[in-house]
Amino acid sequence: MKIRKVLYSKEEIDKRVRELADIISRDYQGGELIVIGVLKGAFVFVADLIRCLSIPCVVDFVRVASYGSATVSSEKIEFKKDVEMDIKGKDVLIVEDIVDTGLTISFLAEKFKERSPNSLKVCAFLDKKHRRKIAFDADYVGFTVGEEFVVGYGIDFNEMDRFLPDVCVIEE
Ligand code: IMP
Ligand code: MG
Fold it and tell me: Catalytic annotation on 127?
């Protein structure tokens, strides 16, 4: 049977998201931010994060496809949906749900750098830093997690469980 164990409760998440938003607001004080959310997993985090910012921002989304099974991140990555705005000269913050092997975020960072933003940073809700296949350090991290598979707060397992307000670990 599938049991879900709460790893981070809604209350813990809310507190951490407010902390992150405060740090980001301070770092970009006086400026304007382009927040680029990575669909689908980051949609809940983006929605919460931007509402806690005290600086103006515009929001766009990308969607990438990586080929492989649900639990194993694979090597081949491409855009399924690109941003719809010009990021040249702008301060861009990519917002991801999880940085795992680092392949997805490295792909995105590389693609966006080619478009000459004024600055480019990454905010990851969860960081599985021990699973990297490619070195990558996010500028802002919500929580550092282990190797366990997590769901909830926008994050899915085969499209299920995104609606859960807590971040949970699936145990068989
Ligand atoms: P990677 O960093 O390219 O390996 O892939 C990161 C993406 O893999 C994340 O944005 C998630 O979509 C997915 N992913 C990695 N770990 C998990 C997990 O524990 N639960 C759900 N999706 C995950
Ligand atoms: Mg994702």
Answer: no
